[in-house]
């Protein structure tokens, strides 16, 4: 029998990069969902700066929003966050991990530098690798105790097949390479963690109005995240290891 996420409530979720954009919208939509998770770990790389103010306001208003510091490129920050999250989980599993934090820098074949290539790879690929590795212990399940899921927020620009369609306008070499690498990482998680009851999926959120997506983007964060929430709440074993867009349509690798 197929086990879907709709078989059980999402009682705990951790979102990286939730200070703004798509990550912040996930926090807000989980709060508004019919059965909000008991623990929403809203993580942000700088809890002291002004960028965490919206999250601070949310956590003052909602006791299920727990602010946690995570810089996805810092193994010590990730390790410290696991200790804190574990205390709040009180022996329960982490049901859902959303690897959302990411950066895009503009580069073309001529201007791409090794520094930028490595920096973008570090945030967009090493980050989700480190975070998932660290939280695996809290997500893995014994047979018959339900499912956990990892959602990697990827991008159409990482699709090999799609390169010709947007290359002239968006060469973004480091970003494309990082998202293609993230996709294979997601598939590795799907295969490697299958026996632990963990589903892994890569989702392209669409072109979304955020600091990264700019005002020119056609989709609002509300519409993009609303559609991704539907996918997440109905995830099945069959979808593990796939790459889909916000509407659930398969994207070619
Ligand atoms: P934003 O630029 O609006 O937000 C990016 C988020 O990532 C911020 O919260 C930022 O934190 C965080 N972040 C960056 N570096 C780190 C780090 N080292 N550690 C922790 N957090 C970090 O982008 P979006 O909301 O648009 O993008 C979210 C995801 O969606 C990304 O993975 C992006 O690639 C993907 N995506 C977005 C698209 C779009 O059109 N917007 C299209 C396709 C994919 P801080 O505030 O501290 O900088």
From TrEMBL:
GO CC aspect terms: cytoplasm
Molecular function in Gene Ontology: oxidoreductase activity
Protein name per the record: C-factor-like
Organism: Pyxicephalus adspersus (African bullfrog)
């Amino acid at each position: 029998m197929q086990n879907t996420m709709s078989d059980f409530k999402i009682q705990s979720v951790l979102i990286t990069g939730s200070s703004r954009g798509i990550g912040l919208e996930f926090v807000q939509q989980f709060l508004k969902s019919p059965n909000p998770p008991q623990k929403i770990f809203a993580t942000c790389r700088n809890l002291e700066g002004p960028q965490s103010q919206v999250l601070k306001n949310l956590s003052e208003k909602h006791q299920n929003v727990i602010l946690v510091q995570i810089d996805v490129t810092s193994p010590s920050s990730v390790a410290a966050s696991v200790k804190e999250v574990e205390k709040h989980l009180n022996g329960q599993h982490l049901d859902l991990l959303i690897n959302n934090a990411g950066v895009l820098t503009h580069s073309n074949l001529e201007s791409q530098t090794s520094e930028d290539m490595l920096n973008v790879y570090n945030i967009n690929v090493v980050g989700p690798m480190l975070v998932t590795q660290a939280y695996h212990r809290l997500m893995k399940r014994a047979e018959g105790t339900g499912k956990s899921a990892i959602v990697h927020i990827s991008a159409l620009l990482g699709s090999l097949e799609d390169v010709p369609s947007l290359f002239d306008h968006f060469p973004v070499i480091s970003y494309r390479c990082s998202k293609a690498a993230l996709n294979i990482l997601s598939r590795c998680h799907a295969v490697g963690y299958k026996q632990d009851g963990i589903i892994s999926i890569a989702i392209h959120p669409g072109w979304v109005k955020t600091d990264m997506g700019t005002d020119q983007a056609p989709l609002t964060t509300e519409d993009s995240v609303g559609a991704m929430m539907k996918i997440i709440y109905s995830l099945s074993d069959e979808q593990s290891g796939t790459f889909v867009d916000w509407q659930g349509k398969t994207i070619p690798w």
